[in-house]
Amino acid sequence: MLREKLMAMIDARTDEMIAIRRYLHAHPELSFHEEETANYIAQFYEGKNVTLERNVGNGYGIIVTISGAKPGKTLALRADFDALPITEETGLPFTSENPGVMHACGHDAHTAYLLILADCLIQLQEELAGTIKIIHQHAEETPPGGAKGMVESGRLDDVDAIYGIHVFPFFDAGNIAYRSGFSMAGRTYFKLGIQGTGGHGSSPHMANDAIVAAAYFVNAIQTIVSRRLNPFDTGVVTVGSFDGKGSFNVIKDYVELEGDVRYMTKETQALIDTELHRIVAGLEAMFGIKATFTYTADYPPLYNDPQATENAVHYLQKGIGDYLQSVTEADMVSGSEDFAYYLEKIPGAFLYVGARPKGVENAYFNHHPKFDIDEDALPVAAKAVADIVLGFYDLE
Questions:
Q1: What is the pLDDT of residue 40?
Q2: Would you state the pLDDT for residue 382?
Q3: What residue ranges in 138-211 does DSSP mark as E strands?
């Protein structure tokens, strides 16, 4: 059976998969600067019976096309490969060799599993029907993100369905979670500059304190979620930076704030957008300051197509009792993911693969300097996506 053959091939290459992950982990590169990582990926496919396109979209994105022996539908599988500006504190023997840069989100694992799975599928081309597009995507972590550019390139216009996974330390290896419909939050970045009039701390009547206006803004925006948003909807407004440092006896003339907004639907996004702009306009009128407001929507909410999600769950049932312990429904995740751009254009689903390190109850979350995974999650991811491929094409 084709499934037995493919699963055996993955088992035989698990050590290679882990070695690739460790090499990538030791050589991380930041978003839009992943030149060497892209070279490594491209070299992996050299001499193989595929079509490889480089620099797709707005960066170092790669699309590898695997053509089956028979005509059929087109399926896309995606893994991201950028790292984060974090100084690693794991103490792993393959810790980052690039100071201040770390694979703290598992993209090294994503790339490793998909490279090996893709190679196994290439070796089985004569038994496959249709076309499989392997997307090695750059710059997931930094807006505008790599997915947007890859979608806009037009190279995926012929894709019928798309799937991706993400490793998370919420649960153990051998468990996969899914959610149909809106699943991960959209995100908007904002920056507010407040220009007042500086002065002496003893004479506030002769100045116009930018800190007071900025403090009012921080408090006022809390009412958007508490008093403007439907209690059954989900939204977050966060001020993460308040740059107002100065001297204790000097009234600040300028303050700058930065933050982000999270939302699960486009309707919530529009409501928060309107209310934030209204508060900024009111700030100018109330305090007589000049406000400069930058408001940039980064990633849309991630919407898993219900039918594509149901199909994936059905395909994964074959793995229960084998490489999988469970396939369960997950709660909404307030983090953001640029895979959402693919799902705006192509039916598909984004699944969560358990990767909690063995013996750890409360694992460090993604983006933490001590983040690590159980590498048993790699073959689980490869086999799970393999089952999705086989199910999508009605192959055994």
A1: 98
A2: 98
A3: 161-172, 175-178, 181-184, 186-195, 199-200
Helices (H) and strands (E) in the chain, counts: 11, 16
Please report which residue ranges of the chain form alpha helices under DSSP H: 2-12, 14-26, 35-44, 107-123, 146-152, 210-220, 222-223, 266-287, 306-316, 339-345, 377-392
- Told to judge if 140 belongs to the known catalytic residues of this protein, a careful annotator would answer yes
Annotated active-site residue in 34, 82, 88, 119:
82
pLDDT for position 328: 98
Question: Residue 172 catalytic?
Answer: no
The per-residue pLDDT for 50 is 98
| Token output for 114 | 């998909």
For the record, the structure tokens of 298 come out as 């980064």
pTM of this prediction?
0.93
Output the pLDDT for position 7. Answer: 98
Per DSSP (E only), the strands in 309-369 are: 326-329, 348-356
Task: Give the active site residue among 108, 140, 172, 275.
Answer: 140
Q: Which residues of the chain have pLDDT under 50?
A: none
Of the candidates 22, 202, 185, the one whose C-alpha atom is nearest the C-alpha of residue 112 is 22
CB 377 within 8 A of CB 317: no
What was the pLDDT predicted at 143?
93
Phi and psi dihedrals of 265, rounded to 5?
Answer: -135, 160
Strands 250-251 and 290-299: unpaired
